[in-house]
From TrEMBL:
Family: Belongs to the Orn/Lys/Arg decarboxylase class-II family. LysA subfamily.
GO molecular function, one term: pyridoxal phosphate binding
Function: Specifically catalyzes the decarboxylation of meso-diaminopimelate (meso-DAP) to L-lysine.
Protein name as it appears in the record: Diaminopimelate decarboxylase
InterPro entries for this protein: Ala_racemase/Decarboxylase_C (IPR009006), DAP_deCOOHase_LysA (IPR002986), De-COase2_C (IPR022643), De-COase2_N (IPR022644), De-COase2_pyr-phos_BS (IPR022653), Orn/DAP/Arg_de-COase (IPR000183), PLP-binding_barrel (IPR029066)
Catalysed reactions, semicolon-separated: meso-2,6-diaminopimelate + H(+) = L-lysine + CO2
Residues reported to bind substrate: 314, 350, 354, 382, 411
Native organism: Streptomyces adustus
Keyword Lyase: yes
Protein's pathway: Amino-acid biosynthesis; L-lysine biosynthesis via DAP pathway; L-lysine from DL-2,6-diaminopimelate: step 1/1
Top-level EC class: lyase
NCBIfam families (UniProt xref): lysA
Length: 462
C-alpha cells in the first residue's frame, strides 16, 4: 500500500525570498491605510467602525470606504494650487460619491455616457463636467450637448465633426478641449502610460496632428476651443515627466498663439498622482504634483494667465478604500502557502491586469507567529486570480479569519466583473462610528434578470 506524499509546508523560520511584501497594520504602515484606520484591542477599525461588525452586517467580500480620508484628500487637492480640480470618476463612481464630490466643490471628469448619466441623474451640475473618451458615440455626444456638459475633450477628427453637428443641431456652442499626446512616456506600467506617441489617446504633437485638430475645431462655428488636455499616465510618483509634459503642452499652446493667433484659456494636465500600495512606497502629494506642472508651464509661458486644471482619481479615493475578505481555505504548496478568500479577480482586477502588489492585515484578531511566504488567492477559475501576490503573512492566519486589503478604493469596484457568476460586493461608507451603504451587494437574482432565455431578436433587414 502506498501513501500519498504530503506537501512540505513552507515552514515558519524558512528564509523568505527577497522583495516579499510585509503584512502591515495601520500602526506599522499608516501610509497605505485610510486616515482613520486603527487597531483597537487587536481588531481593525475604520471610521470608528469595527470591520468584523461590518462583515457580520454586510457579508464579505466587502468594499469599505473611509469618508474622512476622501474628504481630507479632496481638500488637499483643492488647496494644491490648481485652478480647477476634476475628480476622475473612472476611479470609483456611484451616486453617493457624486454627492461627496459635489459637496467638496470639485468638478467631475467622466469618460462614458453611463458615467455622465449617473452624474446628471444625481443632480450634479453638468456645467462642471468634463467629458473624455477616445470613441464617444453620436448618442453620447448628443447627450453631452443636450445636458449642457461644460467641456467635451475631443480625441479624433471624426469626433470633432460629430460634435460640431450635434452642437449646431441643438443651436449651441460647445466648449471643447483638444487632447494631445505630448510624446512623454510616464514611468509606470505600460498599460497606464498614455502620453507617448504611440497610444490610442489624443493627437500627437509630432507630425502636426494636434495642430490640425485645433484648426479643425476653430473652423467649426458650433465649437469653441477653450483648452488643451494631456494625461501622461497613472500611478506616477516621479515629477520629471509631469514637468516635461507641462513644458511640451505649454510649447504647443505658444505655437498656436504665434502661428494662428489662437488663445487657450485653460490647460488640463490630467491626473495620475501615485499612491503607496506597499509599506514604505511614496505618495505624490497634490501640492507637489501641481507645483511640478506649474514649473513646466512657467518655464515656457512665464506670467501667462492660462488656468491649470487637474483630474486626480486614484490619489483622491484610492487610500480611502479597504476590501474585506473572509479566509475560506489555507493550503500549503511546494513553495508558498495559498490563502484563499471569498473574492478575487472579479472584485480586484489590478493584480491580474498590471501585476499590482498589495499588503494585507487580519481584521478580526491580531495574527501571530513567524512570517511565512504566502499568496492570497481568489475563488475564480484562473491561476492568475491573485488578490495579494507574494506576502509574508503571520503563520497562524487561518480559515475563518477576516483579511483586510488596503489601498483598494480606486479601480477596484470600478473594474469589478461577474466572472464565474460572482455577484459584485457591496460598498459601505464609514464615518464617526456609523456605516451607510453606498452600493448594495449584487444578488444572484440581479444576474438572473439579464438572462433572456432565447428571446427572438427582431432584425431590421432580410
Ligand atoms: C484622462 C484621464 N484623466 C484622469 C485620470 C485619472 O488618473 P488617476 O486615477 O491615476 O489619477 C485618467 C486615468 O486613466 C485619465 O485617463
Amino acid at each position: 500500500m502506498s501513501t500519498a506524499p504530503s506537501l512540505p509546508a513552507p515552514r515558519a523560520g524558512t528564509p523568505l525570498p527577497d522583495g516579499l511584501a510585509a503584512a502591515a497594520s495601520p500602526e506599522t504602515a499608516p501610509e497605505v491605510w485610510p486616515l482613520t484606520a486603527r487597531t483597537v484591542e487587536g481588531r481593525l477599525h475604520v471610521g470608528g467602525v469595527a470591520l468584523h461588525d461590518l462583515a457580520d452586517a454586510c457579508g464579505t467580500a466587502l468594499y469599505v470606504v473611509d469618508e474622512a480620508d476622501f474628504r481630507h484628500r479632496a481638500r488637499l487637492w483643492r488647496e494644491s494650487g490648481a485652478d480647477r480640480v476634476h475628480y476622475a470618476s473612472k476611479a470609483f463612481l456611484c451616486a453617493e460619491m457624486i454627492r461627496w464630490v459635489d459637496s467638496e466643490g470639485l468638478h467631475l471628469d467622466v469618460c462614458s455616457g453611463g458615467e455622465l448619466r449617473l452624474a446628471v441623474d444625481t443632480g450634479f451640475d453638468a456645467a462642471r463636467i468634463v467629458f473624455h473618451g477616445n470613441n464617444k458615440s453620436v448618442a453620447e455626444l448628443e447627450a453631452a450637448v443636450a445636458n449642457g456638459v461644460g467641456v467635451v475633450v475631443v480625441d479624433c477628427l471624426e469626433e470633432i465633426d460629430r460634435l460640431a453637428r450635434a452642437a449646431a443641431a441643438a443651436d449651441r456652442v460647445q466648449d471643447v478641449y483638444v487632447r494631445i499626446a505630448p510624446g512623454v512616456a510616464a514611468e509606470t506600467h505600460d498599460y497606464m502610460a498614455t502620453g507617448g506617441d504611440d497610444v490610442k489617446f489624443g493627437f500627437p504633437v509630432r507630425g502636426g496632428h494636434a495642430e490640425r485638430a485645433v484648426l479643425a475645431v476653430a473652423a467649426r462655428p458650433s465649437l469653441r476651443l477653450t483648452g488643451v488636455h494631456s494625461h501622461i499616465g497613472s500611478q506616477i510618483t516621479a515629477t520629471d515627466g509631469l514637468t516635461l509634459a507641462a513644458e511640451r503642452v505649454a510649447a504647443f499652446v505658444a505655437l498656436l498663439a504665434e502661428r494662428h493667433a489662437i488663445t487657450v484659456e485653460e490647460i488640463d494636465l490630467g491626473g495620475g498622482a501615485g499612491i503607496p500600495y506597499l509599506p514604505g512606497q511614496p505618495r505624490l502629494e497634490p501640492a507637489t504634483f501641481t507645483s511640478a506642472l506649474r514649473a513646466g508651464l512657467e518655464r515656457v509661458l512665464p506670467g501667462s494667465p492660462v488656468r491649470l486644471a487637474v483630474e486626480p482619481g486614484r490619489s483622491m479615493i484610492g487610500t480611502a478604500g479597504v476590501t474585506l475578505y473572509r479566509v475560506g481555505a489555507v493550503k500549503d504548496g511546494l513553495r508558498r502557502r495559498f490563502v484563499s478568500v471569498d473574492g478575487g479577480m472579479s472584485d480586484a482586477l489590478r493584480p491580474s491586469l498590471y501585476l499590482a502588489r498589495y499588503t494585507a492585515w487580519t481584521a478580526n484578531r491580531p495574527a501571530r507567529g513567524e512570517p511565512v511566504h504566502a499568496v492570497v488567492v481568489g475563488r475564480h477559475c484562473e491561476s492568475g486570480d491573485v488578490v495579494v501576490p507574494d506576502i509574508a503573512l503571520p503563520e497562524d492566519v487561518a480559515t475563518g479569519d477576516l483579511l483586510a486589503v488596503p489601498a483598494t478604493g480606486a479601480y477596484h469596484h470600478a473594474m469589478a466583473s461577474n466572472y464565474n457568476a460572482q455577484p459584485r460586493p457591496a460598498v459601505v461608507a464609514v464615518r464617526d462610528g456609523r456605516a451607510h451603504l453606498m452600493v448594495r451587494r449584487e444578488t444572484p437574482e440581479d444576474l438572473r434578470r439579464r438572462d433572456a432565455h432565447g428571446e427572438p431578436v427582431r432584425l431590421t433587414t432580410g
